[in-house]
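sry for the spam today, last one i promise. struct tokens for design, 834 residues
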């Protein structure tokens, strides 16, 4: 404490200058009474040393109060540190004791090889400690111990999984003895301790293992003994056991009932025996000589004599026996012998060849048909030859089918001795015969061969199958629906066309439905009662059988042409042919013919109307316009001249449009007549080019003409050819950009004169190529001259009228090429005109 006070004094002396300067507040005065006595002495000393005035004393008092608070806090801190040091020393000592105790417990716990697995409550992560080499190699991961299937067989691993799950879920303890996959015996104990599930696995060795194994063997032996006693007590056969001296030591209830004893003790006391003395003597001799006895003996039980199979065997110092009722088996055996004899007599009368070989593959029976079939010597057959010897003799006589590998073929045939099912085969012999061979394994061992000559039947079947196949394929390939109904009214035959035509089910038709059932299925398509009654009567009638034609108009709009035709065997064949398309075509042709006749009349009327009602006024207007523009009629003002020019251009355009429409209508009506004559190709191109000179000059477009020297002339309508080329050039100029080139060329081929017009316009989209030749199909995009869309229509019409063809090749953005072929053959002109 004195050291603290000295330190505080030094601090106060260093703070004197601060006090004099008034830097400390007056808060120390409030803490001064709480300071210790040493602080009061310090204040007195300071008062003597310093000459304070009142203000300075107040500041000093505040500083001293703060200093006192610091001293108290320091004292309390020192006491706390001393107490903490003492507690820490005690805790370290306690921890050392606990660590020492844990080491002792660990050494004691792992004094023997074992594994501890613990699961804290609510945690699925297991903590594993101990020697894992009990179950896994030392370098294995400890977590692999939890995979019980890696070191336990499947059944113990499943048992361990269930036990651990029950321990963790419900706290159920367990104790199991396990045998690992390597043969080690382990003990697994599971307990719930302190909120944790703990499993302890250790090896059973020494006395504990012996005790555990002895306990297991004892339990198994006890269970086995109880099971055998229960079986013997409930068995319906007499079972007994005798000691070394031959005295009865055990008997089941069946034995007691068979000897008519009251109980086992009564049978032992009265020495009741199941067998008579001779049989007992034979049994004792057999047990003495061979340690077992087997015999079928008669035994009288309840006054009835029955046959029993008696089995006895030496066990330890005594013997055990059982008597099984074999009366029914003995009777069945006798009956089987008699049945076998009857079968042998029956088989001997069959026309089919039968040969029976026993389990040693020796001939046990054959009938006379077998001998005659193979022409074998009776002496050879009566010597009971084996199967291989018979086959070898038949092969030597060339009576078996030719085989590339006879040994393999014979081995495959002899597989019947090990088979369980009957096999069938057909042998084609070198002499042209065909044999049906049925190989049947015998229940008592061996094989029975059944041979039938099927040469004639196979030939007939082949012919019949061929005829049926041809008939079936013929019916299936017919477009007509065919169905055959027997004299009983049931369907016997049908083809796919009949099923499709009436929307029936093939599976239902295979069930041979009656004609009334088929009628019910077909009512959804055709429900005329009179027609169906006629069909039913034709199918089921006996007299007045004749062909009956039918024509059915069904609800779905289809039309069937049918025929009811009686067959010679009493059956009736129905045939149906779908003539819907024929009817529709005929109807459409009639309607089209009527429409064409009406259209032709309309076209004629239209042409007549245009010729007399529209063209005549236009001609008059054009004539007066020309008359007004003639200077002889008098002068016109500029405005009047301008208006008159507009009238002239408009009427000329209207007249051209009218002429085009009139030409198209005339062509479409078949009234257009070509004025055939020699067409000079060069002159024709020149005339067509003159009509577009003003457009070429206006749009600054150059026309490039290429005419082959040998093009010459051809037969055609020169006026229409000029009109074709003019329309093509006008169309090309209209779509070509300014300062570009439009080309026209002509060349001669072997059979035609080809005109080609090209431009560098925007091209024609693919979806528009098929529409450019339609009436009034005008495409103004990319063109400077909007028209009515009739120019290209006239081009195609005039070219085709000459017997030629027009085709268009165009690439968008790269221009268009139109090619016209005019044939040089005059016959083509006549055909086109017709």
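last one done:
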């Amino acid at each position: 404490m004195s050291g603290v006070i000295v330190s505080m004094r030094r601090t106060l002396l260093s703070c004197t200058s601060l006090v004099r300067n008034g830097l400390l507040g007056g808060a120390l005065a409030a803490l001064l009474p709480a300071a210790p006595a040493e602080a009061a002495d310090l204040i007195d000393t300071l008062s003597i040393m310093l000459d304070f005035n009142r203000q300075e004393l107040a500041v000093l008092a505040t500083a001293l109060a703060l200093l006192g608070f610091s001293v108290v806090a320091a004292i309390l801190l020192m006491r706390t540190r001393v107490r903490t040091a003492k507690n820490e020393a005690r805790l370290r000592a306690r921890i050392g004791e606990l660590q020492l105790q844990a080491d002792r417990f660990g050494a004691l716990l792992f004094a023997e090889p074992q594994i501890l697995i613990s699961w804290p409550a609510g945690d699925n992560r297991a903590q594993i400690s101990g020697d894992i080499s009990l179950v896994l190699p030392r370098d294995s991961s400890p977590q692999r111990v939890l995979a019980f299937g890696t070191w336990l067989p499947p059944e113990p691993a499943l048992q361990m999984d269930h036990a651990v799950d029950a321990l963790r879920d419900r706290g159920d303890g367990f104790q199991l003895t396990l045998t690992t996959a390597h043969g080690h015996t382990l003990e697994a104990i599971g307990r719930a301790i302190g909120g944790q599930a703990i499993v302890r696995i250790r090896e059973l060795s020494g006395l504990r293992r012996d005790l555990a194994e002895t306990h297991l063997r004892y339990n198994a032996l006890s269970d086995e003994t109880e099971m055998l006693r229960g079986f013997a007590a409930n068995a319906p056969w007499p079972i007994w056991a005798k000691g070394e001296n031959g005295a009865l030591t055990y008997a089941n209830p069946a034995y007691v009932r068979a000897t008519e004893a009251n109980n086992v003790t009564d049978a032992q006391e009265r020495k009741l025996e199941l067998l008579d003395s001779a049989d007992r003597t034979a049994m004792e001799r057999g047990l003495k000589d061979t340690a077992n006895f087997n015999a079928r003996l008669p035994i009288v039980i309840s006054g009835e004599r029955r046959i029993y199979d008696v089995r006895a065997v030496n066990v330890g110092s005594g013997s055990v026996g059982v008597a099984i009722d074999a009366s029914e088996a003995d009777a069945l055996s006798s009956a089987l012998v008699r049945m076998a004899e009857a079968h042998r007599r029956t088989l001997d009368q069959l026309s089919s060849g039968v040969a029976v070989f026993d389990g040693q593959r020796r001939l046990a029976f054959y009938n006379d048909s077998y001998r005659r079939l193979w022409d074998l010597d009776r002496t050879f057959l009566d010597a009971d030859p084996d199967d291989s010897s018979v086959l070898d003799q038949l092969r030597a006589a060339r009576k078996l089918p030719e085989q590339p590998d006879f040994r393999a073929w014979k081995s495959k045939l002899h597989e019947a001795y090990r088979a369980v099912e009957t096999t069938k085969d057909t042998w084609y012999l070198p002499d042209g015969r065909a044999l049906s061979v049925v190989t049947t394994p015998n229940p008592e061992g061996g094989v029975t061969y059944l041979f039938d000559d099927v040469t004639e039947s196979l030939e007939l079947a082949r012919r019949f199958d061929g005829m049926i196949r041809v008939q079936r394929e013929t019916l299936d390939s017919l477009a007509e629906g065919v169905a055959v109904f027997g004299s009983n009214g049931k369907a016997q035959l049908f083809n796919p066309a009949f099923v499709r035509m009436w929307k029936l089910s093939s599976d239902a038709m295979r069930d041979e439905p009656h004609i009334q059932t088929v009628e019910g299925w077909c009512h959804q398509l055709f429900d005329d009662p009179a027609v169906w009654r006629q069909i039913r009567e034709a199918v089921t009638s006996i007299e007045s059988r004749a062909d009956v034609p039918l024509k059915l108009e069904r609800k779905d709009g289809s039309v069937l042409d049918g025929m009811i035709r009686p067959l010679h065997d009493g059956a009736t064949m129905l045939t149906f042919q779908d003539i819907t398309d024929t009817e529709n075509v005929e109807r459409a042709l009639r309607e089209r013919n009527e429409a064409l006749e009406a259209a032709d009349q309309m076209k004629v009327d239209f042409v007549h109307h245009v010729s007399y009602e529209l063209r005549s006024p236009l001609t008059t207007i054009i004539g007066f316009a020309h008359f007004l523009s003639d200077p002889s009629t008098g002068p016109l003002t500029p405005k009047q001249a301008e208006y008159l020019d507009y009238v002239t251009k408009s009427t000329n355009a209207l007249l051209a449009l009218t002429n085009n429409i009139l030409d198209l209508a005339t062509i479409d009506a078949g009234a257009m007549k070509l004025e055939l004559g020699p067409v000079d190709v060069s002159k024709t191109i020149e005339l067509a080019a003159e009509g577009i000179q003003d457009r070429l000059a206006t749009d600054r477009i150059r026309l490039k003409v290429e005419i082959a020297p040998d093009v010459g002339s051809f037969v055609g309508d020169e006026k229409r050819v000029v009109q074709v080329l003019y329309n093509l050039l006008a169309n090309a100029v209209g779509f070509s950009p300014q300062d570009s080139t439009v080309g026209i060329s002509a060349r001669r081929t072997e059979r035609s004169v080809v005109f080609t017009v090209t431009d560098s316009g925007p091209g024609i989209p693919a979806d528009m190529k098929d529409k450019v030749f339609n009436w009034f199909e005008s495409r103004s995009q990319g063109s400077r001259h909007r028209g009515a869309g009739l120019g290209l229509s006239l081009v195609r019409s005039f070219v085709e009228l000459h017997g030629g063809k027009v085709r268009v090749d165009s690439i968008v953005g790269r221009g268009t090429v139109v090619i016209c072929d005019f044939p040089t053959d005059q016959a083509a002109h006549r055909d086109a005109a017709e």
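Confidence is low (pLDDT under 50) at residues 1-40, 45-53, 785-789. ok im logging off now
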